Request: fold
Amino acid sequence: MTVRIRLLVLVGLLLGIHLNSNVALAVPASLPVVGALLTTAGVPAADGVYVANVALYPDAAAGLAVWKEGPLLVQVKLGQFSLLLGEKVELNAQVLAAAGQTPWLGVKIEPDPELPRVPVRSVAFALRAGVAEGLDCSGCIGESALDAKILQPYAKSADLAPYAKTANLAKVASSGSYADLLAAPDLSVYAQVAALASVATTGKYVDLLGAPDLSGYAKTQALAKVASSGSYKDLIDQPVLAKVGAACGSGLVVQAIKPDGTLDCIAVANKLKPDDISVVSNGIVSDTFTDAAVSSTTPNPIPDNNPAGTLDDIIVPDLGVAQKLSVSFDLTNSDISTIEVYLYDPNGVEYLLYSKSGKKGDGLKQTSPAPMALVKGDLSTWIGLNPKGKWRLRVVDSGFVSNLKDGQINTWSLQIGTLSSKKVSINGGLQLLAQAAPPLACSASNLGLMYVGTDKTLYICNGTDFYPISLVPQYGTVMLPGLTCKDILAKAPATKDGYYWIDPDGQGGLTPFQVYCDMTTTGGGWTRIDETTNYAYQNYCEVQCEKPYTYTLTDPQIAGIKAQSTEARQAWQCHTVGVGVAYLLRWWPMNTTATYAECWATNNADEKQASGTETTFANLPQRSWFPEDNGDPGEAAQHNVDHAFFR
Reply:
């Protein structure tokens, strides 16, 4: 047990023993015990089944047990339990007599030591039995009133002569030893073990005398090893087996084993049929695609009665090796019976798709080589080749209507079924197993390498570092903005520098907006307010003029960030020459100004430069500066500030 247990026992003794069995049956010979199990802290022990051993003692602390029972299974609920003693080991009058006037009950809850003993008190039923034992006899029959003949069936001491005393018994009666017998039988006719042939005691064939002659039989050591081992490797003259890599040369792989045991090799390039990767992957991965290259210059007018016709081009990109190729076109003309349609491949080979079929109408749609066969040429020659390059459609109208424009090429395209060397398609889920560290270092040669971290983040190598994309709900998104960058870092300590969404007033009037968060400088959590102006070192004005700083956030947004922050910093730098008086700075809010003399040059020969970082929270971000007495030749001034940071 994991707790110490104290026992509170209420004992009721419902036990009566009587010489007359008929009377004894009316009195239960059992001892019910109820109690409570408490921990050392005084609270009920946990519900469950406990193992107990119980005993009765004649004394509260000393003495040996006069009766024991156990182990018993005790069901405890809310610390309470009950037992019925005497069901396994009889609890009778002799036990109670040995226990004395007041029996003491000891209970041991395994594996703890026995708990302090408690006295066994009588209950009303037992008290009644005690009263019965103390009643005076009325009309009792004494020994003198009994007839002596009644006692004759009972034996007297004198009648016990036929019974032997232990001292009078032969030794063997108490020892049970064969050696103590008198006149033991003669065993000389029986063979002793030492006199027996060896085979009688060992049972071994080798100990027989006159054993059969086995010389005609082979011994194990005379057999070939395979007879006893059953192993193929123990055979002699084994067949010659093909060895992978021994028979096939460079660039070859095994496709079969010939009857003579040699390898049937093929070139690596032919080891798989097109899209066998789909077969191998059970249809999950495929590298065959059907891409459509469509003209981007249609509609294109068709000149009337012009043997040169009109040309329209499609540049087919590098899609991979063609497994099938077809061409489709859609055109209109006043009379399609005068139309011829040609196709030219990147090598300049001409294919005739349609030629004055005699059909009448003003529209023509066709796909070749199926379902409409080519008039001349065979596009199947491109199967197994890469069809990248310029493909050209030429439409000639040899009929006369107006010598102007007669219809147009509405659209045309090439459909290319490719075995791609550029991409694969996944027809199921692509699972990246989580790893604690990158499988390879991110470098230019591993650009695009990706893995999933055990931190539930997808990492993609950008050529120098792994870019993280969180796979769990992330603070700082438009759906889950933080109050400030400090708030985002507190909720997601692994957040790195970057742009995040914040909403400083929570559900207030501001809508979430995006800011840059500095998560590394002096503990991180800095919300950046970007300043976009850059004042040049130049002549400005003779009288005071204001030069404001421009920030990417609005005043309400800046105020919201300041309301959630307690720290601020903003770097500055200045340069002056010949400025007659100190220029002024306007701090936050707009209506306060302060004289700034740290970068004040008092004459043309006095030039000053300075830089620093302002950290007074109430002053930031700086609003504007006021150059003065800076309009004369040879005078120049400049005061610029960096982005403001709040935390």
The chain has nine helices and 34 strands.
